[in-house]
Amino acid sequence: MSKQEPHSPVNNLTNGLDEIVHQRIRLGLLTIANEAVRVEFRFLQEAMEVTAGNLSQHIRVLEDAGLIRVTKGTEGRRPRTWVSITRAGRTALYVEISSLKALVHRVEQADASST
Amino acid sequence: MSKQEPHSPVNNLTNGLDEIVHQRIRLGLLTIANEAVRVEFRFLQEAMEVTAGNLSQHIRVLEDAGLIRVTKGTEGRRPRTWVSITRAGRTALYVEISSLKALVHRVEQADASST
């Protein structure tokens, strides 16, 4: 590294990262929900390695924002909760991914120009 | 989308995303600091479009984690605060970027297989 200042203005560098979507657990949840018609609560819990309480909180945030839909029912006699991504959720995930790609590109450019 | 369940186990999908580094403002700050020997506080504040108080809080979190170094001094007669990324900070940023790339890839794969 020989530069004294960053090489370009950086406004909006992370403005495309929405706090609701960008949070680690919620980003993982949306990523998984994006791959299926619906995903069962326990599957998500194991996939994300979080407590039920923690997962429930994040599900509520995403549901309140209209990014997922939650359905309750039973399978056999067991209560089940399913999560589906909404159209708005898919759009929000794509916006996040697009911003992340730009960020990754930027860090890799800096790395390339410093070596 | 025709699948009923996600196509693969997703353990550790977001485990590589460290909460300290992944947070939006801090991720932007590390990205910018990674591009220069040192960056001035006000430059960061304008680049990230945050209040001084908010930026100070995030700087403290990163400093406490050993990911940046903070230097205070004057330029002319004006007090200045400079931020430099540490070796540990650079490593943490690269780990985050590597995890983000895997996540981006995964979302794009799901998108490709559903169309």
Q: Biggest protein-protein interface?
A: A-B, 46 and 46 residues
Beta content of chain A: 15-25%
The helix/strand class of chain A is: alpha+beta
Q: Radius of gyration of chain A from the CA trace?
A: 18 Å
Mean pLDDT of chain A: 89
Unreliable spans of chain A are none
Helix content of chain A: 40-55%
Counting copies of identical and different chains, the oligomeric state is: homodimer
Taken from the alpha-carbon principal axes, the silhouette of chain A is: elongated
* Spatial separation of the terminal alpha carbons of chain A: 8 Å
The arrangement of helices and strands of chain A along the chain is: HHEHHEEH
Largest sheet of chain A: 3 strands, antiparallel
User: How many extended strands of chain A?
Assistant: 3
Secondary-structure topology with pairs:
The structure is a homodimer of 115-residue chains.
Chain A: H1 19-22, H2 24-33, E1 39-40, H3 41-48, H4 52-64, E2 68-75, E3 78-85, H5 87-114
Antiparallel strand pairs in A: 1-3, 2-3
Question: What can be said about this structure in brief?
Answer:
The structure is a homodimer of 115-residue chains. The first copy, chain A, is 55% helix and 16% strand.
Structure description:
2 copies of one chain form a homodimer. Chain A is an alpha+beta fold and about 120 residues long. The first copy, chain A, contains 5 helices and 3 strands; from the N terminus they run H-H-E-H-H-E-E-H. Chain A has a 3-stranded antiparallel β-sheet. The longest helix of chain A has 28 residues. Chain A is elongated, with a radius of gyration of 18 Å. The model of chain A has no long low-confidence stretch (mean pLDDT about 90).
